[in-house]
Amino acid sequence: MSQTVLELKDASIFQGESLVLSNVNLQVNKGDFVYLIGKTGSGKSSFMKTLYGDLKLTQGEGHIVDFNLRTLKEKEIPFLRRKLGIVFQDFKLLTDRTINDNLTFVLKATGWKDKDKMKERIETVLDKVGMKTKGFKFPHELSGGEQQRIAIARALLNEPELILADEPTGNLDPQTSIEVMEVLQDINKNGNTILMATHDYALLLKYPSKTLKCDDNKVFEVVQRKS
Ligand SMILES: Nc1ncnc2c1ncn2[C@@H]1O[C@H](COP(=O)(O)OP(=O)(O)OP(=O)(O)O)[C@@H](O)[C@H]1O
């Protein structure tokens, strides 16, 4: 039986008083790879922010991993985020420390204590993104694509039930975008569930998957035609 990791029913997404998306219905199951597309300003980031608790869900129903978005309390947000892996367009690595220290920082902040176990987990996630030998480097010593791989590794640290990637290739050239996408495809094949916001249509064509579109304050599924 498929396990639902995200479900929205008649959910409306607001930025302050203004309605961004209305009556959103969607279900994401374990193992899915789902795209969220739409023009600039159509609401993709607002949608993602609602899912990780940065914007409150005030209308409709929303369940993500084991949390109810309607009743989510401020103090529960860190626990929700531990079950999610979040990847941003601009990587958001800490620039003052090495990759190993970036990853150790997250593990410590999420309750890990055993040094050997932390080291082992860091090696495992760096290996998953093909960056096993780069742990000693500082972020500025890596290319954009490599930094994004590290950001994906960081998202994987606590074995998230769902990865939310908001324009993960937005700062990358087309070839590097494909390399990062291959990493996301690999981790999806290994069982990770991914919801990815993008406006990169070339990626959609190359890696077809279930696609939701934000347009005109609505979210609907689009069916890709095979040409
Ligand atoms: N912090 C904010 N406060 C008020 N309105 C906002 C805020 N952020 C976004 N908006 C508005 O919400 C709407 C949706 O923006 P959003 O950033 O979600 O779109 P997007 O599809 O992610 O666009 P992009 O691809 O440019 O990131 C826009 O009309 C935008 O002006």
Automatic annotation (TrEMBL):
Domain ABC transporter, residue spans: 6-225
Keywords carried by this UniProt record: ATP-binding, Nucleotide-binding
Keyword Kinase: no
Recorded superkingdom: Bacteria
Record-level Gene Ontology MF annotations: ATP binding; ATP hydrolysis activity; transmembrane transporter activity
Claim: Nucleotide-binding is one of the keywords in the record: yes
GO cellular component terms attached to this protein's record: plasma membrane
One Pfam family here: ABC_tran
Database matches in InterPro entries: AAA+_ATPase, ABC_transporter-like_ATP-bd, ABC_transporter-like_CS, ABC_transpr_LolD-like, P-loop_NTPase
Family per similarity comment: Belongs to the ABC transporter superfamily.
Cited PANTHER family: CELL DIVISION ATP-BINDING PROTEIN FTSE, IMPORT ATP-BINDING PROTEIN
Functional summary from the UniProt entry: Part of the ABC transporter FtsEX involved in cellular division. Important for assembly or stability of the septal ring.
Name listed for the protein in its UniProt record: Cell division ATP-binding protein FtsE
